[in-house]
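Usage

Read records sequentially. Each one opens with the input sequence:
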Amino acid sequence: MASLPSRKGGPRKSSVVSLLLLLTLQLASCFVPPAPPAAATSSYRTRRRIRRWASGKDEIAEIEARLAELKAAKAATEAGEAPPTAPGSLFGLVSGLFGGGGGEGGGGEKKKKEDITDAEAREKYGIQLPKYDAIQREGYELRRYQAMSVVECDYEARPQGYELLGGYTGKGENALGFPMPQTAPAVMSPCLSPKTMFYVLPSPHTPLDPAESIVPPPAPLDDGLRTKTVEALAVAVVKFSGYATPDVVFKKRDECKALLQRDGTPYDAATADPRLMIAQYNELFSLPWNRDNEVWLPIAEWPDEEK
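and closes with the structure output:
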């Protein structure tokens, strides 16, 4: 077939070029993956973000499983159920990415359906808690703790204190070189200058039987740590969940003072604020609705009728 003449007298090639271009585009479309369905767009984007965190298929699957657990915990909480997590669990650590930076900021008080008892707390956490005598009052509780062996440090931010104390107990950074079983709570005195924090040391340093003698703990290797014995401590306790932000803590402190005044329980008003303590039972990055916190306010003496 003869080619049509061009304006310049040469063969016209534009139709051939157009045909080749069309064939090229059709072939290229065979290799383009189909777009994800509209319903799957969110999970598709999530997988894309996950691939920025992990390089292998196993790691991607693991992170996707953690995200699924997080969604299940959120759904359970919205339904009024307890989220499936426990202190020290891998999910508890991952959930901190979505729960905030360790309780120093953000969030607020969120009430639980009911407070857990000490026996339930021991079963829930599976770790040693110090023993105490208790008197239940409306809105709060009086406790008289056994003598406790503790390791203490000064701190500016809570993660700094957790790292120091965790090195001594969890990593074996002590004179014996042995890690210790986990205990709770972590107790902070945020109104002192400097602020202090201590961990209760496990048995035999804090005996399971309060009638037994305390075994002196090994010396710490870090100069920022010290061990000591906290003798029978009597405190008024108000429980709360969520983040232990200053506004929430001081609100609970004021509630505790009002309740003590209502019941005529003596406490030293001059030293109440400096001696205020916060007890926390969960991992640093626990989700807010899974946090068990307490405000401790020392009382002057154990009530006469309960001695």
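Summary fields computed downstream for this record:
- Residues 57-78 form the longest helix (22 residues).
- The domain at 118-306 is CATH 3.20.80.10 (Multidrug-efflux Transporter 1 Regulator Bmrr; Chain A).
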